[in-house]
Amino acid sequence: MKKIFCAAALSTVMGLAVSQSVLADQTGNIHFTGAVTPNTCTLSGQDITHDLGAFSTSDAWTAINFGVFKTISDVIAVSDCSPGESVVMTPTFNAHSGGNTEKMVNDGSAEGVSLTLSKGALSTSNRYSTGVDYTFKTNNDGSVSIPMTQTYWRYSNEQVTAGDINFNATFAFTYP
């Protein structure tokens, strides 16, 4: 009986050794590869600052509802992208209440003055609204020019008061 027990014990130990060597033959390696690349597009002209100078509360535009004080046009240039790539711009700014998401509130002390950002002429379809994505496709050379027209004007029929004019907007750009 001792011989059978020893034989059974020896066969169990041998079986474990064999099964470990079988498990060792079933291992493998997984290799992960990749690359970190720089941005695929380049922005220029995205930091826009204008000194509007002084104006008087008695200027003609201050007496007209939505009267225009000044219009300035700039371009944000995107380059070094792949041709046909989508560049998404999302503006964020403090907008007037009541669904006027394209009309910026003056952060300065002057009242009754507003700013609208647009793709050109100040038509409703050209205006940029806060929090909305605008997609621009790059040309065959991998570039696109994003128009940025700023129109400063009297907001509705609000009285224009003396003070500082200060408008701030942030633009997020997304591209592959």
From TrEMBL:
Gene Ontology BP terms: cell adhesion involved in single-species biofilm formation
Pfam families, alphabetized: Fimbrial (PF00419)
Chief localisation class: other
Superkingdom of the source species: Bacteria
GO cellular component: pilus
Ranges in a coiled coil: none
Keywords per UniProt: Fimbrium, Signal
Family under the similarity heading: Belongs to the fimbrial protein family.
Protein name stated in the entry: Fimbrial-type adhesion domain-containing protein
Organism: Trabulsiella odontotermitis
